[in-house]
Amino acid sequence: MLKKSKPTLLLLYISLILTPLTAKDHPAPQILKDSKEKDIILKRSESLNKYLRQHPSPSPKYPVINNLPQEFIQVFPEQIPAPDIEVESTITSRDVDFDLRAAAHLLRRTTFGPIWEGINWAHDEGLDATVDALLEEQPVPDPPGDWIDDPLPPYDSLTPEQLDSLNNAYREQRAETRSWIIDNMLEEEASIHETMTLFWHDHFATSAQKVNFPPAMYHHYALLREYALGNIKDFVKAMAVDPAMLKWLDNDKNRYRHLYVTGDSDEWSGYGRKLTDEDEDGVYTKTIGLNPGLYRYFYTCGGFSIYEDVPDECAYIDPYDHPPLRAFGMNNEDVILDPHPWGGCPEEGYNHGPMVVNFNVDMTGVDLQGGAVHVTGTMDDWSGFGLTLMPEGDGTYTGSMELEPGVYEYLYTVTGEFDDWSGWGMVGNPPLGSNCDWNPDDQWANFGFALINTDTLTMNNVWAECLVDDSDYMHHVTFQVAENPCPLAGINENFSRELLELFTIGVGNYSQEDVIEAARAYTGYTTDGLETFFIENRHDFGSKTFMGQTGYWFGDDIVDIIFEQEETARFFARKIYQWFVYYNPDEEAIEEMADILRENNYEVKPMLEALFKSELFFDENFRGAKYGGGIVHVLSPIRQMYITDIVPPEGQTRNRVLLMFQELFGQAILYPPDVSGWLGYRNWINTYTLPYRKLFTNAVIDGYVYDFPMGFQPDVLEFASHFPNPNDAEQLIDNMILYFYDIQTTEHTRQLLLDQLLQGLDPYNWSLTIPEAEDRLKGTIKLLMRYPDFQLK
């Protein structure tokens, strides 16, 4: 069934248009302070966000994992460990027999398929000189196009036709970038640079599926290449603020949210006034000046996307308020609100009423004409009588009444026989428009008060006068919140978690608290896809405790602390070991490699140099102990068959066919399956991929697959002429085995290959000039590449 489906599926892949550096300087993110500039950048950033949300790049299907019925696939479960290999050799031992096989092994592990001349060059130069050459810095290749610094056009202003044109352009730019990467890998000679770039691409796995902005992905890969052989600590710091990484792991959404109070005083803007914890006692406060009145409010974390639910127990009861609101009253004196937690009530409790109001009015010098003093207002519908006040003997008249919460206006009256008890004989109100006029915008002059959450309120007045001068008119209210969730409400832990788990130190060496504190340190960054910007009011400037160290940490400080941990060096040593030596690390070797890394302040070259010059690296047990990944399996035959001129089908991007096969093998450049990268090891070989891997090597030799041209045609006679004495059949077979196989094959396999080449011909009659030489060479090379030995590196 699988065999029948292969041509159909492969032809489908071939027919599809598959979609998804000069290194530039990497300055520190720009700090945005000017509000106008900040608004421009934020608009560009949001424009990019909208585009990426609505236009993800089509992701290559990974048939190894996702795309076939399970019965078609036999993937080795990740939990099956690689067998232990016990060796006596170490990183520090240097007793290496650097023969041709050893030279081929070194180049096979560090480049994408060594050619025969390269193997002989390495052997002639010797181990030390070869490793030194492999680790030399390489020139920066020309970029894939002049579009690499093009900003995203204003997304909201694009017409449907312009958007289609943009999507088509991005599709081509992704293909150009991926093809450019393939060219760099194919054209590189004796250098580990591109291999290390791929290693870091797997390590900092970032996908163009989500980051569907080719300039960002180009510069991301250029950053990988720039630091491929550099300082790992500096690399991590640079990667943390890389625009593609910010988008990939959502750290551009990681922001410190400040605590705001919003309400009647700021017309419910959502931002209002920001509360701060200046003395770091855990209580966030804000003091503002307000005129007398009743003010409703609640707290938000900046805007209305995150706001508190006010409990009914301490909410201002108003049938028109939804959701419930808090409230306080300003009555010509300063107010300090009781501290309470977000969404909670003060410990002192809350009085919903009724509440006692005491009225005191100084009537000194007023001729009452035998009448009685009253207070009247909205509490008695302005009856004129309201509450009768009693004399205290010093010219002051007092009285008390119970009222429900609310806003009340009032004045004093004197009534009696002189006015026939009308209730309005004499009126004692404040001067119109004075600071005691509760509502100066109307034509009436009344005293007033706001009654909220109190046991007793006392109003002291003087008949027909105002005791409040201009300087006293605006008083202050202090808000206090004891438990503030806002700093963490905007925290996005995606990047900080992967920074610890996958990028630097590994599971089991950090806590959830460390993840949160690292995320706090990395708040405040945004990007327009080309540059990264730091917005100060989105950063958490508070104290943070990370891995036991407390301070006002920023992102770089977090990285420094991580790299102070001994396990960090072991983490990178294991990753390097697994990539270049064997999947199951030898812990003694890991300790040696980690020590070298620490001693050199995390410069990667000294550790690589020690590894590649060690006896352990060349131990026979590790030769052929790795499975060739999809990219290696595609590029190695191309390089080793001396194929340099690849002509794509008309209208297609160069290397499109090679990219297609990489996808079939489960390793598409710029499209790792997730943030953990490619699973690797045994997952490269299964009952789905193995037939296609053999099909591909056949296609490389034939120059076509299912009548579809590959875009190149190797010259097998020219290929054979690179070996010494190619007219000696047995020597030619031995040289090709050494050339293509990392392990010493069996005599049986050697004889089968020799039989395929000779096909009954006497060995001494073999020559590259016989008529059948080309076909026999093709058959022999295809057979050699079909054997299991070829899959092992």
What is the SS-derived class?
Answer: alpha+beta
CATH class division of the domain at 257-489: Mainly Beta
CATH topology of the domain at 257-489: Immunoglobulin-like
Distance between the termini: 30 Å
Low-confidence stretches: 1-25, 62-79
Can you summarize the main beta sheet? 8 strands, mixed
What spatial form do the alpha-carbon principal axes imply? elongated
Q: By CATH's scheme, which homologous superfamily of the domain at 257-489 applies?
A: Immunoglobulins
Query: How much helicity do the residues have?
Result: 25-40%
Treating each run of at least 4 consecutive H or I residues as one helix, how many helices? 25
Q: Which CATH-level-2 architecture of the domain at 257-489?
A: Sandwich
E-strand count: 23
Mean pLDDT: 88
Radius of gyration, in angstroms, nearest whole number: 39 Å
In percent, how much strand structure appears in the residues? Answer: 5-15%
Key words describing this protein structure:
793 residues, alpha+beta, Immunoglobulin-like, eight-stranded mixed beta sheet, four-stranded antiparallel beta sheet, 25 helices, 14% strand, elongated, disordered N terminus
Task: Tell me what the structure shows.
35% of the residues lie in helices and 14% in strands. The strands form 6 sheets. Strands 9, 10, 11, 12, 13, 14, 15 and 16 form an 8-stranded mixed beta sheet that branches. Among the domains are: 22-47 and 139-187 and 192-252 and 494-564, no CATH class; 257-489, Immunoglobulin-like, CATH 2.60.40. A hairpin with a 4-residue loop joins β18 and β19. With 793 residues, it is α+β, with helices and mostly antiparallel strands. It is built from 25 helices and 23 strands. It starts with a helix and ends with a helix. Mean pLDDT is 88; it is low at 1-25 and 62-79. The radius of gyration is 39 Å and the shape is elongated. α12 (494-504) crosses α13 and α18 crosses α19 (656-664).
